[in-house]
Design brief:
heterodimer, A: about 325 residues, mainly alpha, B: about 675 residues, two-stranded antiparallel ribbon
């Protein structure tokens, strides 16, 4: 049990920068650039860990505590999400709703820290981040409803197992609608174009980067790693709620675990690549156009529920 | 228990010239009363009901009736009173020499007694008397600082609204009385099952409007954002934390006990009203810059969340799913308990900030985390709880509320599924906006640099105030991480009015403090485990940060594009922070702004003034037309008010003659 927990933590931390690196490479490919190697995020984090941190004179203990709390909250969520097996040792401790609220906890402290230094960039980033979170939340809850209606639970291990055992029968109109809705939400949650541009430091457009502007050195390394982990976890949610095929269920042997892990990596890379394609093929939207994007997601989730009622004959 | 409050009330009247002794006497006896209240009510929750009558007349039995539901509310009242009383002994120092402490102590104690009587009354007449007592006393407490004009306005709006509410309550009770033949609550139960559906509907609607006014359901909420900020902070903590909950108590009594929650329509009404209250309440809270007004709007939101749970519970019960109904009711009761704790904490926190800085305008504060470190931590706990952050208390009750809405897929009723899922989506939006709102509150008040003189001179508040807040902060954490001990008690209470226990068929307390939803596929959370994992995982980044591989942490000013900008004028303001929401919902806020600039030369601005306002839509478009209409009609009515006593005698004579004729004609 303990071994599974520790192994899951190691896998999450180890894979998160790789996913980031691959996505950057794919983006570079579409922009006809060579781009940094896929291992670059690892080098960046190691480099940051060796550097001094410059700390603003205005900050309080919140600024120092926030990266620690946010990182731990995201990683805790990681222990509730099925990665390569459905029988999670800690699966009883929280369901999909708990995962969302753990992400909210991480976001809350990052945004608090953004206000602590007293810079207008921080306030701007925090304000926009919370705004987008408010936009995302209703659509997210409706799509959870759609998934839970279908499977009958919000327990993530149970969802994966059920969908996985159904095989391709699980593919249904409502499942696809809910997937597209959650895909849009995933764009917003991971701060990708058209919602936020992770590659910019232009004050008019940055959101997440504005929040963490005052961090440097080791603290920045923690914050960046936390963001990468969150991205990996959100893509795993997408993968293992909608396409959990290949995931190991209880009682598998070592070979099956390795196979399940490989399949997981492939799934994550596919989602990462499609995310990068979406990102290169759209332009960033103005902040106040985002309600439109998120209402598309809201409508899709609502349609998923309606479709469920129609298909199942209510 | 009552004796303590009475001692507190009258001793403070007697001692009203000696501020210090008087405050200690009145508030410590209130605290003692509260402690005995806790013991008394927990005895009833786990034991039998308490029934005490003064007169055995069958038409009107005067007395007290305390069942599990009443005991739960006495418990909530007592817990709040205990913490708030301790806080008050420190807080009223603010008024020493300026105001009459004796009056405050007297009103405070009588107010508590009236609230306790409200939840124990056993007949309609007695209920109305104590209800009115509670309203009037709280009115006096609201206008305690009556030298301020806005306080007088607040008091006026409050007393008018609360009487409109009482009017509807009387109507509802009349309908019950016409069915039962007398005013005892016992017989109301019997009447509830024999009345015609139309009468039942009317009784429900009138009660809902009447108690909804007290609870602050949108659009009957307009008194709340005036009255709560105007009252002294310790009183606002009680009003917001407890008083508005007495209305929820009566709604549960009437819907479940008297009417048996037999119509699903009522459930939908409660659910929809709750959803609207939640979303409208938090939308106004987000853009508010006055701390206490913001908290008052957030109370509207939380009452909405409680009503969502109750509404779902009524829908489930009327659809023949008592277990689901019990789960939803437990969610509502849990949130009610949590709200009284964290809202009390936050009102006391706002009181502490006000005490220390003499301003409640968020825009003028900032940076006081360094001046008031202990208060900051306590208030942060309150903020995290109200934002439903795991593993704090608000998270557990919101999680339960979401789960009870999700349970709608057991209903096989498409309308219910769609209504409840939309309600869940809006509840999610409410939760996100609540986090936004309280992030703004904490960030703007405590972090960065002070924005005014007021904030620069802040200092930590005194020990009793910290102790009062500390009790609630501790409770917020305990209610969050130990739900497995709270749920069985709430289960008993919910079972007492629903008739079925949710957790009797499965063990609510599993291993590691797990709480699981009965009859579901493994839906469970375990907040103690979540907290433990969080704490353990915090070690990873903490160790990375602490390993000192020759790295330094030099201090430098905040980055401002290379310009020296470390002043509070460059900080983001509270208004700007919530601006995106204001733009998003501009059709609700209808913002108006005025700018005014003076120029020393055509190119150089000398000063710039910016003013922005939002409209209170409900006041503007719902209440003002009604008030105008009433004023116009009253002016018409003035024609017959001649002021001469002869004319009035004439009117009385005329009416008498008409009545006689009516009787003679055999009218019935």
């Amino acid at each position: 049990m303990i071994a599974q927990i520790i192994f899951q933590i190691i896998i999450i931390i180890a894979l998160a920068p790789l996913l980031s690196g691959i996505m950057k490479k794919v983006k570079a490919f579409f922009q006809i650039r060579k781009g940094p190697g896929i291992l670059q995020p690892y080098y960046d984090i190691i480099k940051l860990l060796k550097k001094d941190s410059v700390i603003s004179e205005n900050v309080s203990w919140i600024f120092h505590a926030a990266p620690i709390i946010s990182f731990a909250a995201v990683l805790t969520a990681g222990l509730l999400i099925p990665i390569y097996i459905t029988q999670l040792s800690l699966g009883f401790a929280g369901d999909l709703i708990a995962v969302i609220y753990l992400f909210a906890l991480a976001r809350f402290f990052t945004a608090l820290a953004s206000l602590d230094a007293g810079s207008s960039f921080g306030g701007m980033g925090g304000s926009r981040e919370m705004f987008i979170a408010s936009l995302v939340e209703p659509a997210l809850m409706l799509s959870i409803f759609a998934v839970a209606l279908n499977v009958g639970s919000t327990n993530l291990g149970f969802i994966s197992q059920t969908v996985s055992s159904l095989g391709f029968d699980a593919m249904s109109p409502y499942q696809i609608l809910a997937f597209v809705a959650l895909f849009i939400i995933a764009i917003a949650e991971t701060g990708r174009i058209p919602v936020d541009n992770p590659a910019t430091h232009l004050e008019l457009t940055m959101i997440h980067e504005a929040m963490i502007l005052e961090y440097s050195g080791k603290q920045l390394a923690i914050v960046e790693l936390g963001a990468m982990i969150k991205q990996l976890l959100i893509y795993s949610l997408l993968a293992n709620i909608f396409f959990p095929w290949g995931i190991a269920t209880g009682g598998a042997d070592a070979a099956e675990y390795v196979l399940a892990l490989l399949i997981f990596v492939i799934k994550i890379i596919i989602i990462g690549i499609s995310m990068a394609v979406v990102e290169t093929s759209t332009a960033k939207w103005r902040l106040f156009r985002l309600p439109e994007l998120l209402s598309i997601s809201l409508m899709l989730s609502f349609l998923a529920i309606v479709a469920f009622i129609i298909v199942k004959g209510g | 228990m009552l004796a303590f409050y009475l001692i507190g009330a009258f001793s403070s009247l007697i001692l009203n010239k000696k501020d210090r002794i008087c405050s200690y006497f009145s508030f410590s006896s209130a605290a003692a009363g509260a402690l005995s209240g806790v013991l008394f009510s927990s005895g009833i929750i786990f034991g039998d009901s308490f029934y005490f009558t003064l007169s055995q007349d069958s038409y009107l039995k005067f007395g007290f009736f305390v069942d599990k539901l009443s005991a739960f509310f006495i418990l909530v009242i007592s817990i709040s009173v205990f913490a708030v009383s301790i806080f008050s002994t420190g807080y009223v120092k603010e008024y020493f020499g300026k105001k009459n402490i004796g009056h405050l102590g007297f009103l405070y104690n009588i107010f508590i007694i009236s609230m306790i009587f409200v939840v124990c009354a056993n007949n309609a007449i007695m209920f109305l008397i104590v209800w009115e007592l509670m309203s009037v006393i709280s009115f006096f407490l609201v206008v305690y600082e009556h030298e301020k004009p806005e306080t007088r306005k607040a008091g006026f709006i409050y007393i008018v609204m609360t009487h409109i509410g009482t009017g509807f309550i009387i109507l509802s009770f009349m309908i019950f009385a016409s069915g039962s033949g007398n005013f005892n609550f016992e017989t109301f139960k019997a009447a509830g099952s024999t009345m015609t559906p139309l009468l039942k509907d009317l009784a429900f609607i009138f009660a809902f409007i009447g108690f909804g006014t007290k609870a602050g359901i949108v659009p009957l909420h307009i008194w709340l954002p005036y009255a709560h900020p105007a009252a002294p902070s310790n009183v606002s903590a009680l009003m917001s934390g407890v008083m508005i909950k007495t209305a929820i108590f009566m709604l549960i009594r009437i819907n479940f006990d008297f009417l048996g929650a037999s119509e699903s329509l009522w459930g939908y009404i409660v659910l929809i009203a709750g959803t609207i209250s939640a979303i409208i309440g938090i939308l106004y809270a987000v853009v508010e810059s006055d701390m206490k007004r913001m908290l008052a709007f957030s109370s509207i939101e939380n009452i909405g969340i409680i009503l969502i749970g109750l509404g779902a519970s009524m829908i489930f019960l009327s659809s023949g799913k008592p277990i689901l109904s019990a789960i939803a009711a437990i969610a509502a009761l849990y949130h009610l308990l949590n709200h009284s704790v964290f809202k009390g904490l936050l009102f006391m926190g706002a009181g502490s900030i006000l005490y220390s800085t003499h301003t409640k305008n968020i825009e003028k504060l900032g940076g006081i985390i360094k001046k008031m470190p202990v208060s900051a931590i306590l208030i942060l706990i309150g903020v995290l709880s109200i934002s439903a952050m795991p593993p704090f208390s608000g998270f557990v009750s919101e999680w339960l509320t979401f789960q009870s809405l999700l349970l709608s897929f057991d209903l096989n009723n498409n309308f219910a599924i769609i209504t409840l899922s939309i309600s869940a989506a809006l509840l999610a939006l409410t939760g996100a906006l609540a986090a936004y709102c309280f992030l703004k509150f904490f960030g703007m008040v405590f972090l960065a640099l002070p924005r005014s003189e007021h904030a620069q001179h802040a200092k930590e508040v005194n020990i009793p105030m910290l102790a009062g807040m500390g009790i609630f902060a501790l409770l917020s954490i305990l209610l969050g991480i130990l739900p497995m001990y709270v749920l069985p008690a709430l289960d008993r209470i919910a079972a007492s009015f629903i008739g079925t226990s949710a957790f009797s068929q499965s063990i609510p307390v599993g291993t590691f403090g797990m709480i699981s939803i009965p009859s579901s596929h493994g839906i469970s959370i375990s907040t103690p485990v979540l907290l433990a994992i969080l704490l353990i995982l915090m070690l990873i980044p903490a160790i990375i940060l602490l390993i000192n591989r020759n790295t330094r942490q030099p201090f430098y000013e905040t980055w401002g594009c290379g310009q020296p900008v470390s002043t509070s004028r460059n900080e983001y303001s509270a208004k700007a922070f919530s601006k995106p929401v204001q733009v998003w919902f501009k059709s609700l806020y209808r913002p108006a702004r005025e700018t005014e600039a003076t120029y020393s030369s055509p190119y150089l601005k000398e000063s710039f003034k910016f003013e922005s306002r939002i409209e209170q839509v409900f006041e503007q478009y719902l209440y003002n037309p009604v008030v105008d209409f009433v004023m116009v009609k009253s002016r018409k009515a003035r024609l017959i008010q001649t002021g001469s006593i002869h004319a009035y005698l004439g009117y009385i004579f005329g009416i008498l003659i008409i009545l006689f004729m009516f009787v003679i004609a055999g009218g019935d």
